[in-house]
Amino acid sequence: MRRILVLAAVLALPQMAQADRIAAASRVVAVTLYPQGAEVTREVRAQVPAGRHSLLVSDLPAGVPAQTLRLAPGEGLALGGHALRSGRLAPRDLPDSPERTAAKAGLEAAEAAERTARTALAAVEARVEAAEAQVAFLRAAKPEAATPEALAALTATLGEQMLAARSAALAAAPDLHAARTALDKAERASADARAALDALARPDGDYATLDLAVTAAQAVEAVLRVTHMVPDAGWRPVYDLRLDRAGAGASVTLDRGALVWQGSGEDWADVALTLSTARPAEGAAPADLWPDLRRIRPEGRPAADTRRGAGGAMMEAAPMPAPAPEMAAMPVQDGEVLVYRYPEPADLATGVEDLRLSLGPLPLSARIEARAVPRHDATAFLVAHVTNTSDEIILPGTAFLLRGPVMVGQHGLGLLAPGMEAEIAFGPIDGLRLKREMPQRAEGDRGLLSSSREREEVAVMTVENLTDEAWPVRLIDQVPYSEQEDLKIAFTADPPPTQTDVEGRRGILAWDFDLAPGATRQVRLAHSLRWPAGMVLD
């Protein structure tokens, strides 16, 4: 048997010797972002000769969980074993990406244009310097002639040459300005091209290498898909909730957005982006319950630390499982998570916090009211009852509130399934003034023999409309309530309230009315409390 094994190993040597190492680069083509974490899909292309080879993909970011790697080979390629290496790595020589190749070509063209502009400027400067040197020489010349006629002719010649030299210098001045402007433009273009290339620089920090055994029956341009998880990424919903009023009506538009971030250590450029509400980083199973065995024992006897089985043997208590992580509320529809596919290729740079992506507007129906609580506020507040009239679930998130173009605050928007309603306040209405006065408040004994005590209060609430439009007003106030038979409470109101025990809250009263421009409305509310003597009212 040992001889057979040795022979098999020897026969395998030529095949192993034929295997070579093929370096390949990957490109991130698709990303699915979860509230915490992301699934990244990379595409690897390489020319693979026939036979068995080792494919090295050396541009995976450090920290990729090896257990999350999933490989999908293209046609003509068979996969063997693979390993993710993050230590003892050889220096990598990655081919440039198409974006980096294009940036390099742009830089070379910009630098060539800069050299041409610099040469042109030097030629113009040489013309100017030559003309100025000629002028300086002619000025220093001291003509000498034997006769007055010869001196006059020589002087005229010098004058003509100086005029020609000065004209040449003046003629070169516009060319000099144009050449300097062209050089400045070329230098700026070169700097921009260099910055663009630097922005695409491959990271020199930690990285991981995927070492993959591949086999091809014949030479093939292999396409391999690699999928893995990235823990440092995520997204959350964010909204602009815009209220527009037109007379007595109102409309609300929900501009949906997503705040995305990632810290994988590499930039994701032109990726197909999907946003999912699934939470693979959290527990996928519900919590479990264990039998709760209770015992009694005689007083004074210490509690036992162990339990006995049916045979009387000592038995350790069943270990309690670790508590499952708390699951945040997650909207579901027909038992499935929600998925948003971003319509355009997206760019997500590493280390950039909260990049906002638009998911489009969603019109909602709204009913507005001026909420008046004069017990605490000096003005009414604009409140909108917003209904999700769409067929989409609106996820919980922060909503920034706008009345027309003006931002008035923010609101923690809860989950809104189709048909659900939310009550959202859009800030004060300064022209609706509130006042609450108490002309009467008294307490004392009641009855001939002072067998009981009584407290009476009267409040007058006023709403004044100083605006130039009518408002639907909802005035809210309260009277105390009791759950004790000996504490008797009664109230009267003029006019009577439209609703009592608003939203199930006992003693909360509401009046609904329309208030015209310049109008004032008053509500008188009185209540009394009576309790037996010898008792104290809390």
TrEMBL record:
Residues 1-19 form the signal peptide. Residues 107-141 form a coiled coil. Pfam families: DUF4139, DUF4140. The keyword Isomerase does not apply. Residues 224-532 form the DUF4139 domain. Keywords: Coiled coil, Signal. Residues 31-138 form the DUF4140 domain. InterPro entries: CHP02231, DUF4139, DUF4140. PANTHER family: DUF4139 DOMAIN-CONTAINING PROTEIN (PTHR31005). NCBIfam families: mucoidy inhibitor MuiA family protein (TIGR02231). This is DUF4139 domain-containing protein. It comes from Ruixingdingia sedimenti.
